[in-house]
């Protein structure tokens, strides 16, 4: 049983609390200044508190407040050297967080699918931490990266769910334009993303081979793929991730570690 606290139970913090509640190997303290945020997570955790000192006794402390609020939280958080602080804030360097705490700092870029155990997370740490690795395993899939790639991870898997929702919506809209009922179109589009993602994750085949497997010779898929290959979709996606990554770099510019 790992004692975990989550400071900041808004969109991302509450997803972490709910995701951790899916297994019974954690004792979670949820901390927020906003009592309505705490009420929303109360059924999923051992205790809720508005007092950051109560959250400071956990073995692993997730800080899940907005980047602009992180300095105030760190200043009020007195963690011992044997604690681990996990920072998930976009654009906030690990060195900045480390300069405010004696705890070991691990930087993670998670996403909202933590709530359902389907999170994609990028992790930057000095040394692998088995306890944090086990927590992340419970929340979904994670990969270790160098911190210099955190800006692009923030764009790819942190912001990524929003981009994917947009693509699901676009495919569903196209089906509706062909006359399909909107609910049916959204279910089919979303489930198609889920199924394709599951295959992409589990298959040994390359993505090109997976496309080929769908595209029967003389069939329908190749007609659609020709449109995609001839379009500027790839460069638009490149710009989309580029803009989000650039914003992460801009945010980082507002923090220094002194
Ligand atoms: N929303 C998302 O999809 C993702 C967010 N993140 C990161 O997670 C962090 C939180 O983002 P969101 O959940 O979207 O923001 P949010 O605004 O939904 O939640 C922030 C929460 O922190 C609480 N808070 C503020 N000051 C506090 C304090 N001093 N003590 C305790 N609680 C305090 C607020 O009351 C609020 O409930 C950000 O740093 C963001 O970069 C990372 C990955 C994905
Ligand atoms: O939009 C944001 O800044 C946060 C970080 C990644 C996803 N949401």
TrEMBL record:
Q: Which GO terms describe its molecular function?
A: pyrroline-5-carboxylate reductase activity
Its primary localisation, in coarse terms, equals cytoplasm
Annotated Pyrroline-5-carboxylate reductase dimerisation domain residues? 147-251
Q: In which pathway does it act?
A: Amino-acid biosynthesis; L-proline biosynthesis; L-proline from L-glutamate 5-semialdehyde: step 1/1
- Report the record's Gene Ontology biological process terms: L-proline biosynthetic process
Top-level lineage group: Archaea
Query: Keywords on this record?
Result: Amino-acid biosynthesis, Cytoplasm, NADP, Oxidoreductase, Proline biosynthesis
**How is this protein named in the record?**
Pyrroline-5-carboxylate reductase
Native organism is Haloplanus aerogenes
Q: Which gene encodes it?
A: proC
